Automatic annotation (TrEMBL):
This is ZC12D ribonuclease. It comes from Ceyx cyanopectus (Indigo-banded kingfisher). InterPro entries: Rege-1_UBA-like, RNase_Zc3h12_NYN, ZC3H12/N4BP1_RNase_Reg, Znf_CCCH. GO terms for cellular component: cytoplasmic ribonucleoprotein granule; nucleus. It comes from the Eukaryota. CDD domains: PIN_Zc3h12-like (cd18729). PANTHER family: N4BP1-RELATED, RIBONUCLEASE ZC3H12D-RELATED. It holds the Pfam family UBA_6. The lineage of its organism: Eukaryota, Metazoa, Chordata, Craniata, Vertebrata. PROSITE patterns: ZF_C3H1. GO terms for molecular function: hydrolase activity; mRNA binding; RNA endonuclease activity; zinc ion binding.
Length: 309
């Protein structure tokens, strides 16, 4: 009887020590209801209830982010640049390869140099667009160097082939420039090419502004990929600001700059610089200053000149 009651209350989740203690105090002939009341009275709880009573540790999650790691993985690489402050990069593969091959050879090594340059800067979203027919064996009229690089970049999900096919022996090629501009525009990124895409600028006014403001030109100097330090000209942003989502702050120039000539300046009131020797005086010409010091009226000299025969 003792063992059967012990097994019964153990199945309910109560501990053996509490059950034995109650059975010793009430006796083996005690009813199950009495044993249960005594267990409740002494504060014993089933293990299932104890586990529910203990709250799980809360994990704080940033607002707008996924609460599980699987949710984070679903975002994928197309979510943009994971670095947060660097713009996505879209490379015109044909333009870069032909530029590195001196417009004679499709040099895949030039594409690799450009990709490595942006990787070293920290860009994680890098896409290279190349026509699909570049996977075919090279011919005399279209030589290709280091073609294996295209396969390696494709495995890394960096290189994307634009569609092409053959119809009755003729190759039908989709316009790869349209892919390049469209993806860069949707990702708010940067186009790496020496092409101006004038036909696409005339086609879409929004693309026209985007190409003018987000086109990054480049040069190859001894197998070195070199974009300019001022992509939009001397008065435009620096290269770091151009490739960043948040442009770097430029310190404003001081309103007053000291005159480099100092007291030897002869520009007078035409001088645009600040003179420390006359902080509270109006900027007068040298002749007017001399007249003011000698207390000669300004019109005196003019009257003498008018009286001369």
């Amino acid at each position: 009887v003792h063992q059967s009651k012990l097994d019964f209350f153990c199945k309910l989740g109560y501990g053996k020590q509490d059950i034995c203690k109650v059975l010793e105090s009430l006796g083996e002939d005690a009813l199950e209801d009495d044993v249960l009341k005594e267990l409740i009275r002494i504060g014993s709880k089933p293990q299932a209830l104890e586990s529910q009573a203990q709250p799980f540790p809360l994990k704080l999650v940033a607002r707008g982010s996924c609460s599980t790691t699987s949710g984070l993985k679903r975002l994928g690489e197309d979510d943009g640049d994971s670095s947060g402050y660097l713009r996505p990069i879209v490379i015109d593969g044909s333009n870069v390869a032909m530029s590195h091959g001196n417009k004679e050879v499709f040099s895949c090594w030039g594409i690799q140099l450009a990709v490595d340059w942006f990787r070293e800067r920290g860009h994680t979203y890098i896409k290279v667009f190349v026509p699909l027919w570049r996977k075919e064996p090279p011919r005399q009229d279209s030589p290709i160097a280091d073609q294996h690089i295209l396969e390696e970049l494709e495995k890394q999900s960096i290189l994307v082939y634009t569609p092409s096919r053959k119809v009755k022996g003729k190759r039908v090629v989709c316009y790869d420039d349209r892919y390049i501009v469209k993806v860069a525009y949707e990702k708010d990124g940067v186009i790496v090419s020496n092409d101006h895409y004038r036909d696409l600028q005339n086609e879409n006014p929004e693309w026209k502004w985007f190409i003018e403001q987000r086109l990054l030109m480049y040069s190859f100097v001894s197998n070195r990929f070199m974009p300019p330090d001022d992509p939009l000209g001397r008065h435009g942003p620096t290269l770091n600001s151009f490739l960043s989502k948040k442009p770097q702050k430029v310190l404003p120039e001081p309103t007053w700059q000291p005159c480099p000539y100092g007291k030897k300046c002869t520009y007078g009131n035409k001088c645009k610089f600040y003179h420390t020797e006359r902080p509270h005086q109006a900027q007068l010409s040298v002749a007017d200053e001399l007249r003011a010091k000698t207390k000669v009226p300004l019109n005196l000299g003019k009257d003498k000149c008018s009286r001369l025969p």
